[in-house]
Amino acid sequence: MTDEVENVETEEQAEVDELEALKRERDELVDTAQRVQAEFDNFRRRTARDRQELVSLANERLVKELLPVLDDLTRALQAAEKHEEAKLEEGVKLVHRQLAQILEKEGLAEIETEGVFDPHVHEALLAQPSEAEPGSVIEVLQKGYRLGDRVLRPARVIVAE
Amino acid sequence: MTDEVENVETEEQAEVDELEALKRERDELVDTAQRVQAEFDNFRRRTARDRQELVSLANERLVKELLPVLDDLTRALQAAEKHEEAKLEEGVKLVHRQLAQILEKEGLAEIETEGVFDPHVHEALLAQPSEAEPGSVIEVLQKGYRLGDRVLRPARVIVAE
Question: What is the ipTM of this complex?
Answer without folding.
Answer: 0.72
